[in-house]
Recover the amino acids of this structure.
């Protein structure tokens, strides 16, 4: 499994107020989208999320998003290593993702950019 990088997940109260800081910090422009009632801004290595508390409560349990070349390969490898597959692979606005609980209890999202 080829790991391409990781994205830090941050829940914020006011997405629009938070975006300028992270754009300036990273020198990147926010890519915005919405999923399941949660507004999201991807900026460099940061994924800012804002929305209903019930949705954010679930999202806060995911430690980070790990970018991989191929989610199907990640699925096979992680399952074979004893990780618990929570959800996926499923399509997202920018590719596909997979939610996985590692044997130590840490939850990660693995995502590729294969197109939805």
């Amino acid at each position: 499994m080829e790991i391409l990088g990781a994205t830090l997940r941050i829940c914020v109260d006011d997405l629009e107020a938070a975006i300028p800081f992270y754009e300036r910090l990273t020198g990147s422009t926010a890519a915005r989208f919405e999923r399941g009632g949660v507004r999201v801004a991807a900026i460099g290595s940061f994924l800012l999320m804002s929305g209903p508390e019930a949705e954010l409560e679930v999202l806060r349990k995911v430690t980070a998003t790990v970018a991989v070349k191929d989610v199907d390969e990640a699925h096979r490898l992680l399952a074979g290593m004893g990780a618990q597959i929570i959800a996926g692979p499923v399509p997202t606005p920018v590719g596909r993702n997979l939610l996985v609980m590692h044997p130590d209890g840490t939850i990660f999202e693995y995502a590729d950019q294969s197109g939805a």
User: Anything to note?
Assistant: The helical segments are 15-26, 53-59, 71-80.
